[in-house]
Amino acid sequence: MAACVEFEAARRLFLEAIREGCISSTIDGLEKKYKEIEGNDAEKRVAVEQAFKDEVYERLITKSSAQDFISIVKLAILAVEKEMTQAITPIIMMGDIFETQTLDICQDVFNYLQSASWITEPSFAPGKNILLRLCNDILKRLSKSQNTVFCGQIQMFLVKVFPPPAKSGVNLQGHFNMENVTEYSLTVDDDLIPSTREEKPISVEMEEGEMDEHAGVPIDYNLYRKFWILQDFFRYPLQVYNRVSWKQMQHNTEEVLRCFTSYKLDEVKMSSRNITSLKQPDRDVYFAKYLTNQKLLDLELSDSNFRRSVLVQLLILFQFLMASVKFKLDVQELSEEQSKWVSDCTERVYELIKETPPGGEKFAEIVKHVLSREINWNHWKNEGCPSFVSKVFETDKPPKTQKSRKRSIADEYRLKDKKINLGNTELSRLWNLAPDNLGACRSQARVFLPSLEDFFEDAIYQVESPSDVAETEKLVNDGNYGWRALRLLARCSPHFFTYSNMPPKTLPLYLEGMIKKLAKDLPSSLIKHEEVAEEEDEQQEEDEEFLKHEQEEAEQVNEKAAESQLETVSKDQVQALAARVLGRWKKLAKLLHFEDDEIEYFESEAASVAEQAEKMLQVWAENLTDASPPVLRPALSECELESAWHEVFGHDAATADK
């Protein structure tokens, strides 16, 4: 029997060997100490693991460099390969490092983790769940717009470690990223109001390849609002199945496509310098999200990459609406008219992509190819994400011979006397009515199962005409009828086995939904359709209501634009106020919710105090949607500068009150 290991003494010896091994980058010393200590291997492994954790803890509190952490992790991996500690020890150590260190150190350590091949070996399989949680914790700390490359490295690493059928890497429930909200301005910018725009004559000759800033798309707030509202449908496509949301999405999409069609981009003759820069792939710039400032929309519409991004988003939305996804509800289906509109818009979008330079034809083919492959992935997901590894069949074994069925005692008895005596006259008579009892059971005379048309005829009429029958007298509310209906549906209807992730409903509601589905499949004589004239009147009322809503919303926008003109801060007022604030501008900036780094930026941009104050007020007036004299007044009062507010805004405020 192996002797017990003195844990504390063994831990100290292993800790000294680990520190020497980190310096020499070898594990020989630790391996020698491990063999010298007598005792159970399980107890010695625990002591080695604790020694590694203690060393990591010492390096965490002394603020070591990334290379120090990498060296201790490498030594732990060598210890795992020598079976001196558990396989999850290096992963637990990296988890402690990632939880306590800065993002720069975490990225350096993760680069080593990404380049190492040991993580894919079978011996480290028990630590994969810990590794997944570790990577998810890092992703929560990162910003997708500022740490885009690091986020992508983590995602690619998870794809390499975990196979595609792994449940942790597949969105089985079909959830959407509801946090991806695109914010845009809810008020009209002064520069977009036609009455306040100054028309400047163009007298300068344009150089080759230069774009005219006045020849862009005419942008108003209505187009701006409709354009960015589409991003909400891209974020959560299921809302399109709502009738009102469908109308809004359809109307906004038509406006955007009409804008793209009326203002097409042409091939621009580039200079040799621009062509050389485009040929360098490492100079591509990635933006996680486009800017939504009203002043930038006309420039963005002139950008081919921006157009392609929006058009591809439309194609993805259309493909989702037309695809068969098992997580969609039964009511989330497009009508024939809606499907035709989606198909027509898809063709229009592909034509616009082809007309967008440079290389529009080739880009359209690539997008079509990628989306066609996405259909295969959708089928794979609908089937439950089966594994791509096929089972290996053993072909060396000889095929099994099928054994003949052993005769039962009843068969042996029947072959002798042709009749079976069950000991009772009536039972023997019933048993011997036919030579083959199974064949007799399949006789048409013994079919007592009613057809779907006969059984559900009255129920369909009650569902189609709910006002003719009282709620308590409906068949779907009868428990006996519901039990027989479920048995019949299980035998004769394919709708009974339709998969759904919705919680089970009450029996009357479930039967009412099934009856509506059956009504579409049964002969038209059993279905009481609504009159076509009523449908057309209802459709016309909906269209009129939608147009009326759009008109009222446009009037409200114009009223808000007129009000906002009275509450804006002009450039002259900013200069006058900056001359009165001077040395108190930092305190005022704090009250206007500017951060410390932003205040430092204002100080670096201007030399004098007056220019710094003017820069701060100018940024506040241009970028904040609620920038107005009433908002500025409490902040100036806090700085004991209310007199400055009266001197700058007093006359305008009195005029506005009148």
Mean pLDDT level: 78
Supply the number of helical segments. 29
Which band does the percent of strand residues land in?
under 5%
Helix content: 55-70%
Radius of gyration: 37 Å
Question: In short, what is this structure?
Answer:
The chain is mainly alpha-helical.
Describe the fold and architecture.
With 658 residues, the protein is mostly helical. Helix content is 59%, strand content 0%. It has helices at residues 7-24, 28-36, 41-61, 66-81, 89-100, 103-115, 128-141, 148-161, 221-235, 243-262, 272-278, 297-301, 304-322, 336-354, 360-382, 409-417, 425-431, 437-441, 452-455, 457-464, 479-492, 507-521, 532-566, 571-581, 585-591, 596-605, 609-623, 629-638, 642-657. Helix 14 runs antiparallel to helix 15.
Topology (elements, then pairings):
Elements: H1 7-24, H2 28-36, H3 41-61, H4 66-81, H5 89-100, H6 103-115, H7 128-141, H8 148-161, H9 221-235, H10 243-262, H11 272-278, H12 297-301, H13 304-322, H14 336-354, H15 360-382, H16 409-417, H17 425-431, H18 437-441, H19 452-455, H20 457-464, H21 479-492, H22 507-521, H23 532-566, H24 571-581, H25 585-591, H26 596-605, H27 609-623, H28 629-638, H29 642-657
Helix pairs in contact: 1-2, 1-3, 3-4, 3-5, 4-5, 4-6, 5-7, 7-8, 9-10, 13-14, 14-15, 20-22, 24-27, 24-29, 26-27, 28-29
Please give a handful of descriptors for the protein shown.
single chain, 658 residues, mainly alpha, flat, disordered C terminus
